[in-house]
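Question (not urgent): is this output format expected?
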Amino acid sequence: MQISKTPSAPCWADLSTTDPDAARFFYEALFGWRTRPVEGARNDGYGMFALDAEDGHLVAGSGPVSDPRRPAAWLPYFQSSGIDAVTARVRGNRGRVLAGPVPVLGQGRSAVCQDPGGAAFGLWDPLAHAGFEAVNVPSSFCWFELLTRDGPGAVDFYQSVLGWGTRGRPPGDGAPYTEWTVADEAFGGMVDMSTQEFPPGMPAQWNLYVAVDAPDATAARCEELGGQVLVAPTTTPVGRFARLADPQGAAFSVLRLTAV
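Got this back:
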């Protein structure tokens, strides 16, 4: 699936960080990304990550946190043509619109929202910038997972707001798992934290996965670069993954899918 071109599917990922220069060094060293400045942007430190310097293949954006009291974090964006109607559905289904919709340099319109469980996500109504130029290949995003303590409520919310479908996956390690679908294709999943062991203070959040060939080596390199390994490399029915955090504390995961 060309997820960035599919209505309601993931189309972009933004890193908000307390130290943009240090974060860019980290991700360039970890994934081989190359930073590209945003032409015409205000001098606020925002830039984009590409898979390579010559051909581009944009995979993410990065900029400073809007409030220094906020922690560094990754935020997924979902394609939302007609963003005003979508934000109205967010409010009508017990969610919150935290910012926007606002125009962004002629590239599109964006909004930042929060579901009823407290997980933040973005909406993107594309104009010049359609979103991801590479997905599901090494060093690009490949899976989008919601961690929540209200699984049934999350299903109702995202089905009502974005029209997603769901399907259950048989538990491979004793834990049930829900997949999110658009046009009958899975692009992400949901973990109900109330049915599994998670730290009690851990808030609901979106967990973004980057495809890698060697999760163990990536986790070791993350530590070498000053990051943390939050969940050690682990094999699951769908592949081997690790949950990591960059030196500023933004969490993300890496995944090597099992060949089918």
